[in-house]
Structure formats: structure tokens, C-alpha cells
Amino acid sequence: MRNGSMINFFNFYKQITNTSLRHWLDVLPEQLNIWQRSASLHSEFKYWLNCLERLPKITPYYLDLLNGVISHGESQLLSDHKVMIEKTLRLLMPWRKGPFHFYGIDINTEWRSDWKWERILPYISLLKGRTVLDVGCGNGYYLWRMIGAGAKLAIGIDPMQLLLCQFEAVRKLIGDDQRAHLLPLRIEQLPKIASFDTVFSMGVLYHRRSPFDHIQQLKNQLVKNGELVLETIVIEGDENKILVPDKRYAQMRNVYFIPSANFLVNWLKKCGLVDVCIVNSCVTTVDEQRRTDWMISKSLADFLDPNDHSKTIEGYPAPIRAVIVARKQ
Question: Which positions bind carboxy-S-adenosyl-L-methionine (predicted)?
Fold first, then answer.
């Protein structure tokens, strides 16, 4: 999987050569070669790669991706081995999406991403046998859950190098599973592939300067009748309600547009998607997103009005997250 101290993607290239994704190979290898040579790589990237190299590749006796990301050995790891693995994983902090459970090591991540997955899964098309794309996938937690739900191939894109290293660390600890892959790309770098049965965009839209462009880019990756699963922050209100935060929203600088869920439905229809449906909407709580010993910096409780959790610290409505499901005609 690695060439010297740099992650390579040869296994992935080989895997898609004889599939409908093969035309992606016209541009993908050169994009990733440029990425590897880029001066913009994080100053800690080599350190994270060294941490990754220290982790053993383990084939679990028991792997459960349906109910979580859970791996067990026939007998759990020797104490000193377990201590080394946990210490190495902590060097890759902060861990935001999860949780993960490896051989008695529990990574208590900032987000209870399993809660979001349980909210989404009942409302989407069955993933069995599908090829799936997760845009802005973070450390790839949902990719493994998609595989657990039956996806044939789950591909995530996210440009953050720490998250790539976390993903590869998980892969090593669950048996070098090649059904999921994370590529350090942005959605803007993808050609019009039109080969994914399901495309997920979760927690991305409000960071985009042009939401219409983002929705169109997602649509471009879907096969005919493919399904888009869009999860994002919304506000309460009718189809004419939208919030444009000033400088920050919940202390995030790069939040541009927060529409109502019904406003967002109209956006999706305007982009040519059909069967658009709001399937879930709920307030994000400080139990779902919080500081832990695996993510020790500030979290949601620090970004809300301390006297009124219905508002952000800036006075805007606190985050409500809606899930919209739609289909490419």
C-alpha cells in the first residue's frame, strides 16, 4: 500500500480498471502525483505517515461493520501490544468521526457518527451491491458503515491529510480491507464520472460558496436513477427562509448559506433532481458532538450561547441537521 513513506493508490487503480470507473484513470493518477509533490502538504504529514508505519497490519478474528467499526482478535492483543497501538492512534488526534473499537481499544470520537448513520439508513435505498461516493468523508467512518450495509465499493474524497492517515490506520487494524478507499481530493477535482449508484454529501454544503455548483457536481457523479443523500445544517422556516451568517457561525468561519429544509428542496429541484424528500431533521445536541479524551479542543458546547443552547454564541439559531434524499432522473 505504501511506497517508501508516501501512501500510494495502485491497488485502487487496479481495482477500478475493468469497471465503469475506468475513465477516471485518465486524470486521477496525475492528480494524485501532483498532490504527492505539492508544497502545500501539511508540515506534520511525514510525522503522521511515520505513525501509520508503526501500526501492525492485523487480520481480525471478528469484524463487524454492520453495527459499528468493531474488530476483535481470537484472543485480545497482548497488553504491551495494545498499549503501543493506542499510543500510536492517539498521535493521530484529533479523532472527530466515529466511534471505533479495536481489540479492546475504544476511540471515543467528538461526533457520535453512529447516531447520524442510524438516522439516515432507514430512508435510503439499500446499499447492497452498490458503488458509493462519500464527498467530504472525513476519516472515512461512514465508508466502513456503507460496506457493512452491503456496498460493493465505497470511495470517499477529503483533502485533509490527517484524515487520510486515520483512514489508513483503521484499514490496517481491520485486515487491510480493500472495499473502501479514501482519496485526498476535492469534489471540484472530479470529472463528470456518472458511475456511482449513491452519492453522499454530509456536512459539506454550508461550507460551499456556490451551493448550486456543489449540488450539480454531486449530480454529475450519479448514474441514471442514482440516489443523492444530502445532509446539512438548516434553519426553521418556509421555502423562502435562508440565513447568510456574517463572519462566523458557531465559530466556523467558512459558513456561507444555511437555508431552511424546504428552501433546500427547491434548490435540488432547480438542479434537475427528482423525488426530493426531507427524510429527517433534528437538533444537534451536546451529547452527539462533544469534547472527549480523543478530541480535546473545543466542541459544540463551546460554540453555543452558554445561557441558551437554542442559539449559537453569535446569536444565530443553533444547528439543526436535515437529511434530504433525491434521485437523478
Answer: 97, 111, 116, 136, 187-188, 202, 206, 321
